[in-house]
Amino acid sequence: MRTYQKAVLITAVIIVIVIVIMRLPEALRPSEAPKPTAQSNISQNPEISLSWEPIRIVNDKIYDIRVEIKVKNANQLKWLKIKLIPVEYDYFISSYGMRQEDYSAVFPNESIRSVDLQPGREEISVNFTNLAGGREYIISAEGEDSAGRILKEEIKTPYIRQYENVAKQDNILVGAYYYPWYSPSKHWQEGHMNTPLLGLYDSRDPIVISKHIDWATGHGIDFFIISWWGPGSFEDLTIKEHFLKNPLIPNIKFAILYESVGRLKVENGEISMEGNRQILLNDLSYLMETYFNSPYYLKINNKPAVVIYLSRIFRDLSLGDLRDKVYLIGDLVYWQDPRSESRIADYDAVTSYNMHTSVQDILNNFEYNVDKKYDEWLNLCSKTGKGFMPSALPGFDDRAVRKGNIPLPRSPERFKRQLEIARSHANLMMVITTFNEWHENTQIEPSREEGMRYLQELSSYLGLQREALTEKRDLYLFKAGATHYEVRLLPENIRLIYLEPDMWQGNSDVYPLAGGRRVGHHWSQFLMLSPGKWLTDRVESEGEFLIDFKVLKSSGKLVAYSGKWGFRDYFVTTAVHYIWADDEFLYRYVKTNLTVLRDIPDPVGAIWVELMNDPDYYATAVSKTEKGLITYDMHGVTGHALKEYTLGIYGWIALINPLSSDVRGSPALILVRSSQKAHPTVCNCPNVDNIEIHMLGDEIRMLKKGDYFELHYLLIVSNKPNSYSWIDEAIKRAIPMIELIDKGELP
Predict the structure, then answer these.
(1) Which of 404, 390, 407 lies closest to 442 in space, CA to CA?
(2) Tens digits of per-residue pLDDT, 496-518?
């Protein structure tokens, strides 16, 4: 066959084969060769994943976070950036009616932060620092691959606090009544005098709940007492399904306010009326199953606390086996005579939800009358061994819902005074009426009309009690013999501990005392601000307070009690103590930044300010008696029941005593420095001879409870002769150092 004929034949065969294959079913056709380029592109598409963690937390507030970006096939990315986007909540304006000008006061202004990253790395970390907080944040990663496609991945943080949780930084337990009953269709339409800064919010909104917890704990509130209206009620479901599921719930405690008037029949006040007791028992059983086991529920003496609203209108409270399982706080305190109140036996503690009354004579001098009535209730609680939880409120005005009632005008000044009264009477804790009861205008929640003023007032008041915290916090620890009590407090919150009578030699009474650091076998500083006795050798040698001496901050909470006496504060002070020496003299300077005169128990009758000869330098003065005790009473009012209490010191004081092994034979001099002519007064000085008080200057003014004053004294120790000619020179040398101390410029 010729060559061209073979070629034609081969071509024809190939054509026939192709035609046959084309006619075969698709499943029987030979598979196509793979397309390596396309398949390679699919397997190399980049993928982004995100995670984050806090890296700096201070008092529950997250300041800094670290974002981790993981990129699969990172070499396929042309560019990559990460953003931190503050979430905005415009619906507060559109749905709740928040004013535009209030928005930044609730949600702090904060810009979007964007970081351009170098593509090609599979794992990248980015830190975002100094978050303002008060909102959630979106973390967004965005990039472009080699094919021009945009990749995006986002995650959202939970609500991050705006304020540090200062509530847990002190030993002052403060609660506030809280109402979870608001929604677009509930309660707001019933009336309110002022309007929340948040607008007319929904109590189930997680951001609203977060704001409330953030604001409250950020200004000193430790727990909410939440209004509860029965199983399955709107309030019950709000607490259970929303409040307790909020990400900030670990930052606060809560307890239940049992709304007795809404749950029980109140005719004639008989709890035994048909059905009442069973309702109460069923409700407590429900609360026990639903809330009491929560790690965030408020426990007192290891029992869940429940406040019974308006319990003073009920009689014959009997709870059977449930009684021992709960810590019952009765809303029993009002204007009745406490001595006639037999119902106190039904409760572990008592409180007053609200001392407002329509009696004009009481309202005319409301704080004074509340103070006196709280005295009576505290005395009863002390005698009966019950807790007392006084309340403080900013004012009261329910005319928006109850026409014609007499208001108690609200003001920050009133609220501050109410806080002082409540604090001075609390032997358990104190409570604020209220955080957000808008119908009666008792709220301290921020409002359009008053902004943050009441929370700021609370924070300021508690801050004066607490003082600014330092990073190094030394604790006080006191022990006394085999039978001992311990106190663990921050230095700025020194409280007097209770000593058993057998810790005093030959003395059956318990006396106030305060202390400083033990140096060797002696106390470095000892200041007594109420009638008392020197510690015995036994207690002095075995007890110790551990403090940072250079930055000692003290508050004179100076009442010891045996269980029969109520706890009282004679003074609340915040003082700074310094000690230094030169070649001839040794100095101690004490400056009180704030002193508040408190109530005095009736048996005392007058204020004595007592300065102890310093046993660091007079070692043998501390023995089995009160050697070394210097007591002075400027007005000679000892033993009188005073309407206005007298304070013995105002201005500068220098207590000067020659160094001696036996103080009894050594003269001492107390100087009150100011501008008037000296007026010597012989003082009451047990076991110390020839002591005089020289008052130079302004008359000692009369101080009432609640008055503020300052107290400064300079203690100078010298072995100079008793002529005192060296006093002026010693004080002259001390003045430059004192000026540095006052300016905070320590050498």
Answers:
(1) 407
(2) 333 333 333 333 233 333 333 33
> What is residue 644's predicted lDDT score, i.e. its pLDDT?
28
CA-closest candidate to residue 516, choices 548, 563, 483, 472:
548
- Chain-centroid distance of CA 12 in Å reads 99
332 — phi, psi (to 5°)?
A: -110, -20
Residue 116 in this model has a pLDDT that exceeds 50: yes
CATH 3.20.20.80 intervals, the chain? 173-462
> 474-743, what's its fold?
Beta-galactosidase; Chain A, domain 5 (2.70.98)
pLDDT digits (tens, 9 = 90+) for 201-231: 999 999 999 999 999 999 999 999 999 999 9
Q: What tokens appear for 514 in the block?
A: 């305060």
H/E/C letters for each residue in 49-100?
Answer: EEEEEEEEEECCEEEEEEEEEEEECHHHEEEEEEEEEECCCCHHHHCCCCCH
List CB contacts of 33: < 8 A, sequence separation 6 or more.
none
Residue with tokens 């407090």: 489
b/e code 301-328 from CB counts within 10 Å (16+ = b) = eeebbbbbbbbbbbeebebeeeeeebbb
Q: Identify the weakest region by mean pLDDT among 326-340, 347-361, 372-386, 480-494.
A: 480-494
Other beta carbons within 10 Å of 42 = 7
- Give the three-class secondary structure for 532: coil
Q: What is the pLDDT of residue 33?
A: 44
pLDDT digits (tens, 9 = 90+) for 1-10: 555 555 556 6
Nearest residue to 123 via CA among 165, 85, 74: 74
Distance CA 259, CA 659 (A): 66
Q: What is the pLDDT of residues 120-133, one digit of tens each?
A: 889 999 999 999 99
Are the C-beta atoms of 628 and 622 separated by less than 8 Å? yes
* Pick among 1.10.1040.10, 3.30.565.10, 3.20.20.80, 3.40.50.620: CATH of 173-462: 3.20.20.80
Nearest to 211 by CA among 456, 440, 466, 435: 435
Q: How far is CA 186 from the centre of its chain?
A: 32
Distance CA 201, CA 197 (A): 10
**Count of C-beta atoms within a 10 Å radius of residue 40:** 9
Q: What is the DSSP string of 209-264?
A: HHHHHHHHHTTT--EEEEEE--TTSHHHHHHHHTGGGSTTGGG-EEEEEE-HHHHS
Q: How far is CA 288 from CA 263, 276, 297, in A?
A: 17, 18, 11
Cα separation, 130 vs 115, in Å, equals 16
Which residues in the chain are classed under CATH 2.60.40.10? 47-157
Average pLDDT rounded to a whole number, residues 347-372: 91
Q: CB–CB of 495/478 below 8 Å? A: no
**pLDDT score at 716:** 61
Segment 440-454 mean pLDDT: 96
Q: How many CB atoms are closer than 10 A to CB 466? A: 20
Q: What is the rounded distance in angstroms from the CA atom of residue 277 to the CA atom of residue 281?
A: 6
Q: Indicate the CATH number for domain 47-157.
A: 2.60.40.10
Q: How far apart are CA 174 and CA 222, in angstroms?
A: 5
Neighbours of 264 (CB within 10 A): 21
Distance between CA atoms of residues 210 and 157, nearest Å: 13
pTM: 0.61
Average model confidence (pLDDT) across the chain? 69
Please state, in angstroms and rounded to a whole number, the distance separating the CA atoms of residues 472 and 371.
37
